[in-house]
Amino acid sequence: MTDAPAVAAPVDRTTQPWWRSAVFYQVYPRSFADSNGDGVGDLRGVRDKLGYLELLGVNALWVCPVMRSPMADGGYDVADPRDIDELFGGLTAMDDLIAEAHARQIKVTMDLVPNHTSDQHPWFREALAAAPGSRERDRYIFHDGRGPDGAEPPNNWPSIFGGPAWTRITEQDGTPGQWYLHLFAREQPDLNWDNPEVADDFEQTLRFWLDRGVDGFRLDVAHGMAKPDGLPDLPAVASGLFALDDDDVRFNNPAVHDIHRRIRKVVDEYPDAVTIGEVWVTDNTRFGEYVRADELHLAFNFRLAEAPFTAAAVRDAIDNSLAAVGPVFAVPTWTLSNHDIEREVTRYGGGAVGVARARAMILLELALPGAVFIYNGAELGLPNVDDLPDSVLQDPVWERSGHTERGRDGCRVPLPWEGAAPPFGFSTGSPWLPIPPEWAGLTVEAQLEELDSTLSLYRMAMELRAVRPEFDGDRIEWYGSPAGCLAFRRPGGLVCVLNASDTPTSLPPGDVLLASALPDGGQLPPNAAAWLV
Ligand code: GLC
């Protein structure tokens, strides 16, 4: 390893917006903690665990959708964006959660879904009852079909979840009617953002929650709301589930930026509020456009979540994530998993190696400048559950793919809290997805007092990141490092080393602040990371 670069002046973090270096914890409410024994996690469950989240050291929550929903897509099918579903405890439970989280200095951000509604939203019911060409239909994307009887969909777009992106309706007189667009499940009709009523209503939703004290929003499918003129066919239907080509005409249309500007204007009236967009765009320039000064504050960059565990791939993901936001002076974001992606322990090979690599990667991630997103259960080192019985699968992907894709339930299995047998304190009832008995050693209770547990590693790492001046500065400098390893340094002086090779590697000079596996005689073992100062 080569010499350290020069140290820059420390940054005064108190003058920065709170989200700039925040650790966000993603709560998937159905799977977090169930307070009423119905087998589904809820907001009182989250509130009851705020002490745990405080201990863990998170700065903010991202709460996946809890608005009124028939749950055709786990809540991403919203029937009333300005109410909380009784399944999650209703509006009072949300108000209580916000108040109690704030009392513990934890911010609360909510997931909003601007691209589509539920088919049970009053607007969609009105659209079905109204005539083609009506004001009611114009809030969604209805078209006549192709072919002599209009029996073919208006274009060839597939839904992200499998099957066609169009469903034909029956008109009020019983005749086969128009088709409506749904980029996701058929229960999720796409809104028509060219209709000013749609933007006005979304503005009302933003204000409704901001006025209730919410600190910001994760915006679902934030690259999806604008559709291309004329809805042209896709030249080649190459994109898969959450693997989109940047040129896929269904997404990433230039008019989406006007929508973000409009959203930002509203959010800017609430000075500390933040917007985080789900933006599946790979090209750095196009990604950066979403986080220009008058658009989103933050956008998820999924490169690290997609990178295999090799030094070259991880370094490339970091370089590109930084390069995407640098030119527009935006803050980078880092994420290893979420409710749509295979858990990292499994992605990195599973078993002890998968856990070791996931532990290394959280140290790497927390050493980077910017905002970090942790998916609930990652701090316990949970693997994906890939052997759920077919009969319990709930992700719409399973049905829509004709049972060829199992979908995302494997990363959504409820969290194990305590005890020796399922449901491990998650619920007093029967959890909506079964929890594997093998998770007995992974419960919060089992890990909390164990110094070398994954939970303890997360806690120590987050505490150090919050208090140590060595984490200052929003740049990194790469060190030279042996093949299969990487090392970088923050201007404040922190050095992070990752050993993704299969032999131990020497550490650069300095004191080890924290390591994901104990260095042996000054050598960092394979599948490990260390922080040095
Ligand atoms: C986003 C969400 C995903 C959901 C989809 C449709 O990608 O993260 O869970 O299924 O949007 O709303």
Q: What this model shows, in words?
A:
- With 533 residues, the chain is α/β, with parallel strands linked by helices.
- It folds into two domains: 18-117 and 196-448, TIM Barrel (Alpha-Beta Barrel); 122-181, Oligo-1,6-glucosidase, domain 2, CATH 3.90.400.
- It is 26% helix and 15% strand.
- The chain is built from 15 helices and 20 strands.
- The chain has helices at residues 29-32, 43-48, 50-56, 90-103, 122-129, 196-211, 256-267, 284-289, 303-306, 311-325, 344-347, 351-367, 396-400, 444-448, 454-467; strands at residues 23-27, 60-63, 67-68, 80-84, 107-112, 142-143, 166-170, 176-181, 216-219, 274-277, 298-299, 333-335, 371-375, 477-478, 485-489, 495-499, 505-506, 512-515, 523-524, 528-532.
- The strands form five sheets. It has an eight-stranded parallel beta sheet with strand order 11-10-9-5-2-1-13-12. Strands 14-15-16-20-18 form a five-stranded antiparallel beta sheet. Strands 6-8-7 form a three-stranded antiparallel beta sheet, with no helix packed on it.
- The chain starts with 22 loop residues before the first strand and ends with a strand.
Topology readout:
Blueprint: E1 23-27, H1 29-32, H2 43-48, H3 50-56, E2 60-63, E3 67-68, E4 80-84, H4 90-103, E5 107-112, H5 122-129, E6 142-143, E7 166-170, E8 176-181, H6 196-211, E9 216-219, H7 256-267, E10 274-277, H8 284-289, E11 298-299, H9 303-306, H10 311-325, E12 333-335, H11 344-347, H12 351-367, E13 371-375, H13 396-400, H14 444-448, H15 454-467, E14 477-478, E15 485-489, E16 495-499, E17 505-506, E18 512-515, E19 523-524, E20 528-532
Parallel strand pairs: 1-2, 1-13, 2-5, 5-9, 9-10, 10-11, 12-13
Antiparallel strand pairs: 3-4, 6-8, 7-8, 14-15, 15-16, 16-20, 17-19, 18-20
Bound molecules: alpha-D-glucopyranose (GLC).
